[in-house]
Design brief:
Blueprint (H helix, E strand, L loop, with lengths): L7 E6 L5 E6 L5 E8 L13 H8 L9 H9 L4 E6 L4 E8 L3 H14 L4 H19 L2 H13 L13 H6 L2 H11 L5 E7 L3 H11 L20 E5 L5 E9 L8 H12 L5 H8 L6 E8 L4 E10 H20 L4 H18 L3 H15 L5 H9 L3 H11 L6 E5 L4 H5 L7
Parallel strand pairs: 2-6, 7-11
Antiparallel strand pairs: 1-2, 3-5, 3-6, 4-5, 8-10, 8-11, 9-10
């Protein structure tokens, strides 16, 4: 079931271990192309914090063939887009172009990945740019709370480190460290090249062989994460009037068979304006403007969390409402009507996202990195249809345990406000 006819999937593995995956969609004129590298902030050592993100920036600052301006205008001048992002586990360099300009997009991204100069002057300038990016997050409480929560949740492990590092760690990074880090991690076995749209798999394989030169091997792997086994509370007063609160439990890995059941739990509780928490906390009581749940799926671990922003005097009551609804999910199955609504919402969001070639490319690349498999839209929709109310309740019972709950607040909240909450999940 898809609104885009004639889609064909292909995969090629080169001797270096590099994987090329494509979905040909003849009905469109666009082509989305991305190079996914299995490296992120969780792979950084103590003296390398922020290196993954810094490298992502530096690759756009000039090569032996192109200046930074020429890189920026190469694809944009043709109506396309060129960008990159770094997450806790992956780095992706991607472009969106008309199908006739795919070869140029491949050439530009290959150029920045193989020929970047990393000049001392550009490194110094880009450190200033990233420092401003860090300050922007530090001054945006709704963003900062999630960084602080991750740090608290992972108890000092690398998965909780800020993706951009800190101003201090950034300042200490050297050109030698950045080049060494890239050599250790940008290996064929850690790279997936994904393409979707009106493209030829055979042509893309030929272009990749001609233009990319990753060393063979699987590179280094990040440390295995240890899930929290105790309750942790952190209250940070940054002088703001509004209280921002994140609370969360250990979740599931990306490839876990109950992943869709957890997505259903998240969707029902806090996945939109129709969700239970939004309706009960915002619409019925006017206690918060923003409240939502979230799920983070990593290679070997995950988080199921909830965020809200409210006045300090409402924090305790809001948390109690959240806990009450979490408790109900452990004790009572969703009705068939509610389950059907949740499934329809998940399937609709997924299908609409697959209308975009860039959305498809992101999904294709991430699935290959995380699972080594291709999951078609039809397969995903069938998996969603197989979710049962019993399975959702079992996932809730397994994950929602207040003895493993992490709570982080930013603003005027003090520990007494949270400790006074009834934690029995009544």
């Amino acid at each position: 079931m898809t609104t885009l006819p004639g889609i064909k999937y292909n995969k090629t593995v080169l001797p270096s271990g590099l994987r090329i995956v494509t979905e040909k969609i003849p009905a469109v004129r666009s082509a989305a192309f991305g190079v996914w590298v299995d490296v992120g902030s969780r792979d950084e050592g103590i003296s390398e914090k922020g290196a993954s993100h810094m490298i992502e920036h530096m690759l756009f600052k000039g090569t032996r063939r192109r200046t930074a301006r020429e890189i920026a205008t190469s694809v944009e001048a043709l109506g396309g887009s060129l960008n990159a992002f770094t997450s806790r586990e992956q780095t992706c360099y991607h472009a969106m172009v008309l199908d006739e300009h795919l070869e140029l997009a491949v050439d530009v991204i290959a150029d920045i990945l193989t020929n970047s100069t990393f000049t001392p002057r550009n490194i110094a300038r880009e450190k200033q740019v990233i420092a401003e990016e860090i300050r922007e997050i530090d001054e945006t409480p709704s963003d900062l709370i999630h960084e602080l929560f991750a740090e608290t949740f992972w108890r000092g492990q690398s998965l909780g480190s800020p993706i951009m590092g800190t101003e201090q760690s950034l300042k200490a990074l050297t050109r030698k460290q950045l080049k060494s880090y890239m050599q250790r991690h940008y290996c064929g076995g850690k790279v997936v090249i994904a393409g979707t749209g009106n493209i030829s798999h055979r042509k893309l394989v030929r272009l990749v062989k001609e233009k990319f030169d990753f060393p063979s091997g699987s590179g280094e792997c990040g440390e295995k994460m240890i899930m929290p086994v105790d309750r942790r509370l952190q209250c940070i007063n940054n002088g703001t009037n509004q209280a921002h609160v994140c609370l969360g439990f250990p979740g599931l890995a990306f490839a876990h068979p109950d992943r869709f059941a957890l997505l259903a739990l998240h969707t029902y509780l806090g996945g939109g304006m129709s969700s239970v928490l939004f309706q009960k906390i915002r619409e019925e009581r006017g206690m918060a403007y923003t409240v939502f749940s979230f799920t983070d799926f990593y290679r070997d671990s995950g988080i199921f969390g909830i965020y809200l922003a409210t006045d300090r005097k409402r924090v305790s009551n809001a948390i109690e409402i959240i806990l009450r609804e979490l408790g109900r999910m452990k004790k009572k199955k969703l009705t068939s009507e509610k389950l059907d609504t949740v499934k329809a919402q998940i399937k609709g969001n997924l299908t609409l996202g697959m209308e975009s070639t860039s959305g498809r490319m992101n999904r294709l690349g991430r699935y290959e990195l995380m699972t080594g498999k291709h999951v078609s839209l039809r397969d995903a929709l069938n998996a969603i249809d197989r979710i049962t109310a019993e399975r959702i309740m079992r996932v809730a019972r397994e994950l929602i345990n207040t003895e493993q709950l992490t709570v982080t607040s930013l603003g005027p909240v003090i520990e007494k406000d949270i400790i006074s909450v009834d934690w029995t999940l009544a």
